[in-house]
Amino acid sequence: MKKLLVAFVLVLLIAGLAFAGGRKQGGEERYAILLKPLSNEYWSTMKEGVEKWASENNILVDIYGAESEENIPGQLSQLEDLVRKDYVGIAVAPLTPVNLINGIVQANRKGIPVIDVDEQVDFAQLRAAGGHMIGNYTTDNISVGRKGGEFVVQRIGRGSKAAIIQGFGGNVTSLQRSQGAEEAMKAGGVEVVAIQPGDWDRMKAMDVATNIMQTHPDIRAFYCANDTMALGVLQAVQNANRTSQVIVVGTDAVPGAVESVKNGGLAATVGQDPVGIGIACLKDLIDAHRNGFKFDPNSDIPVRFIDSFLVTR
Predict the structure, then answer these.
(1) Helix residue ranges per DSSP H, 97-191
(2) Do 91 and 34 contact (CB within 8 A), yes or no?
(3) CATH for the 141-271 domain, from 3.40.50.2300, 3.30.420.270, 3.40.640.10, 3.30.1490.100
(4) Which single residue of 34, 190, 209, 254 could bond 233 by disulfide (Cβ 3.0 to 4.6 Å)?
(5) Which CATH architecture has domain 25-138+274-306?
(6) Is the pTM of the predicted complex or chain greater than 0.85?
(7) What is the predicted pLDDT for the residue at 169?
(8) Cβ neighbours of residue 226 closer than 8 Å, sequence gap 6 or more
(9) More confident residue, 205 or 17
(10) pLDDT at 27
């Protein structure tokens, strides 16, 4: 009887140590990354690069994408499901600055570290809800837009007209890129005749660009807040037989856009490093988990920038 009691106590101790050592799945620590829709090459490129790095370093990670840019509540449901699955760390790229706040708070309450991937959460509202993140890796999006705008000025010159195609209205990344591009164009003497949302969608951006060219037949350039929209705008320019008069500049340097630049389609794209951003986030999650993450809603949330670059032919 005494031996059975000792064995039972040992089992309890081992179980307690396993729990204290961090949540496991299948006996191994496992991380989750929830991105925006993987139909966008930027996010699919990040997924592939992070999976490759994780495989090479024996890290278990599951990477998910939001169903669509429009399904904002659906992404929160995805995050809440990940929290219930007890991953030891979760990275998120929110569709809006606030849509994942409740899920992040739920993860915090379970002691799961959460990091912000590229698209920034509204940290003030997160704190007000009692939540916290261990950090954010992103690109300086005002600088990204500025590089695109400066390239437009160099190509079309002072006194010319240009337009900016944003993502969803109110999206922070989109607004910052638009701001940088507009400031650069105005400083270079280029008139910005239109700033309209393309909803990060290729077909929507094509339709918007078509309408802008009809309203402003003397337009010389478009700056687009991502490459998906830029390729749609390029199609609109080609449909209007204006490729020799109108240039299109995109953002993200996804493979399809880089190929287009190489072949003389897009004039340029401002490149980010999605793989570098994703890997940096995963590394921080691993460090937080293995070094004994402690939830502190009052601590600062560090924002770290991964540099951008201009891709031309």
Answers:
(1) 101-109, 123-128, 141-156, 172-187
(2) yes
(3) 3.40.50.2300
(4) 209
(5) 3-Layer(aba) Sandwich (3.40)
(6) no
(7) 82
(8) 40, 42, 167, 200, 250, 251, 252
(9) 205
(10) 53
